[in-house]
Amino acid sequence: MMNLAGYRLARRDKASRKLAVVAPVVALLLSIALNFALYMAMGKNPVAVFQAMLIEPVISWPAFSEVLLKMTPLLLIAQGLAAGFRAKVINIGAEGQFILGAIFASAVPVWFPQISGLWVWPLMIVLGGIGGMLWAVVPAIWRVRLNASEILVTLMMSLIAAQLLNFLLVGPWKDPMGFNFPQSVIFPLDATLPLILPGTRVNVALAIALIWSVACWVYLQRSFQGYQLMVGGLAPQAAGYAGYSQSRAVWMSLLIGGLAAGLAGASEVAGPVGQLQRSIASGYGYSAIIVAYLGGLHPVGIVFSSLLIAILYIGGDNAMVSAGLPVAAVRVFQGSLLVCYLAAITLVRYRVIREPKGIRA
User: 93-125 pLDDT, tens per residue?
Assistant: First the structure.
């Protein structure tokens, strides 16, 4: 219960599922209205901006295929983060785990540039997942053994990962034939992911992301282990009385998030990028936090929210070119979308009650 200047928020006995589904739609409409006013204040044509941002990415197959490509890492990471968020284990370091997944996957073609075989890209995907999980081990140990905040530790680990990436690309892994650019060698064909949609750049990583989403749904919604995970994080004392371990919930939450981010990092370097670059750290790990919450921390909702954020990614690029919109305005749209959703979902779960004047604090 929260007191707000004569009003209080009382938790509803039972939140409406219909309103929970409607909340993201309301949040999208509110954020569109807010940003419409912002673009007018900036002297931009709001209709042209929203045409470029929300319509153009979905009206042609080439543009929509790029949306699917952008959706893949967001979907992978957000599904992994949502498992921890539901257990109140807040992993903010998916960006670092993404980078480590990309580094681990890139080790194969960097060390063996002439490597070939159908087993190469699956090995890279596996190594990427391992790299992401290993980067999540440190915050897990600090949380379980020292009770350190996983929010701070995972965030700091992301900064370390970015510096490790810089070190490798300007040092031992820099392509000697790359005209001094901070990038690795270009990966051979067998170290890149097969395409699944002819005429596009959409690769097998999209199928992996969808399979991962199904696995997360089964684990969180239909398995006893998923129930233990949520109870261990939400009610540690009750979980301990029932024989569930809070420490296990922390470990599982962070390792699942690290695995998902590592898989995304591996799929990015082995997919559309085709080499390890500095630009691989493009903020997917942070954007996936918005995706997870906008999807209601539910595996099915996250599929749709990842598609929406991917549209905003591609549409934002279109708006910057065709409507002269600055990149900061695109990020403001994403941030306002999350704020509006959190406000909407709060009203779904709570009701506002006005307190009588005589009992106000």
Answer: 999 999 999 999 999 999 999 999 999 999 999
pLDDT in tens, 141-194: 999 999 999 999 999 999 999 999 999 999 999 998 888 899 999 999 999 999
Half-sphere exposure of residue 357: CA atoms within 13 angstroms, side-chain side: 0
Q: How far apart are CA 69 and CA 45, in angstroms?
A: 29
Q: How far apart are the first and last CA of the chain?
A: 14
Q: What residue has token string 């390890």? A: 276
Structure-token match 């909407």, residue found? 344
Report the b/e string of 71-90 with b at 16+ CB within 10 A: bbbbbbbbbbbbbbbbbbbb
Which residue has 């701070």 as its token pair? Answer: 152
Cα–Cα distance list, 226 to 292, 319, 340 (Å): 17, 41, 29
Distance of CA 306 to CAs 176, 258, 278, 302, Å?
37, 18, 24, 6
**CB neighbours of 163 closer than 8 A, spacing ≥ 6?**
none
Q: How remote is the C-alpha of 175 from its chain's centroid?
A: 30
User: Which residue shows structure tokens 């306002």?
Assistant: 336
338 near 290, Cβ under 8 Å?
Answer: yes
Q: State the Cα–Cα distance between residues 65 and 42, nearest whole angstrom.
A: 31
Residue 341 near residue 23, CB atoms below 8 Å:
yes
| 3-class DSSP string for 138-169 | HHHHHHHHHCCCHHHHHHHHHHHHHHHHHHHH
Top-level class of domain 45-324: mainly alpha
Backbone φ, ψ for residue 18 (5° rounding): -65, -45
